[in-house]
Amino acid sequence: MPETSRRRLLFGTAALSAGAFLTACTSNEPAAAETSANNEPATDGDKPGKAITIGFAGPQADHGWLNAINEQAKARAKKYSEVTLDITEGSNDIAAQIGQVETLINKKVDVLVILPADGKALTQVGLKAMRAGIPVINLDRIFSNPQAYRAYIGGDNYGMGVSAGNYIGQRLKDKKDAKVIELAGIDGLELTQQRTKGFDDALKNYPNIKKVARQAADFTVESGQAKMAQLLQAQSSFDALWNHDDDQGVGALRAIQQAGRDDFLMVGGAGAKSAMDAIKADNSVLKATVLYPPTMAASAIDLARFLGQTKGVSGLAELEIPASVTLYSAVVDKDNVDQYLPTGFR
After folding, report:
1. Which of 22, 104, 232, 322 is the most exposed place for a label (fewest CB within 10 A)?
2. pTM
3. Quick check: helix, strand or coil at residue 232?
4. Which domains does the chain show, CATH number per domain?
């Protein structure tokens, strides 16, 4: 997950997060960097290039978002006839994932895409790949050493919190002494801390709003239900809830319905299809969700292909791909849910 201290290239629309900006490219070879009559770079991003193998290593798909990551990568690779995707089974065991990456290194794949179970713990194997001449695309959970990857692409966890806080702030800006609560993710993860910090920083813009409670869950339906039940029991009255994750949000909604509560609004996180369906139906407290797009995996495959075929991204002056891409955390509510519904993951 990105840290606020590292260099980031921000793209301001969700369409970019889906990899639309990666659909065309220019060659890194000076002789091939032809320009058209209007001095725009020639583009050939969708045309087959040289055959390459992309190794993909991610954690176990035991969560809707992680499963969507795998599916996005597979589907994107199939788009390119010259790309072979060598994908590992996926594991949350750090030693096992390191072994899987080392196997891909030994196979001499052309490019590696790695979504580490733990960025810090897999930094050394990322460095090993880079030193072996295999460029690494670091996906989402960031390595602790920038030399361990050629390019980073991921979501904006701090931005998620800011977007959620501003959405709630705008909805409650005219309410005196408004109260909000937060159902966070796993507190030991940097991403959870960043989401909370962004949320708290955004709420500073609304002096009439106070955060009165926070519980950390575990990104599961069961934990969401249990922790939400505790919050509801402790807080007899509040105006808004931000839930970090739509998977645990399924359980949170269950607890809310069982308690018969409908006196507040709820904002989710990540962009699950179930959340978007509920937002569209507009028959529950869930009124919005903040995106953390799994389409980043499709874009990671695009970046890997460009690297393997020594191409850059069209629309940018540089002949090389960016060192970093951070996706925008858009808010989906009833006004724009139809636009984003096709991107919802199961």
Report:
1. 322
2. 0.82
3. helix
4. 14-155+293-328 (3.40.50.2300), 157-291 (3.40.50.2300)
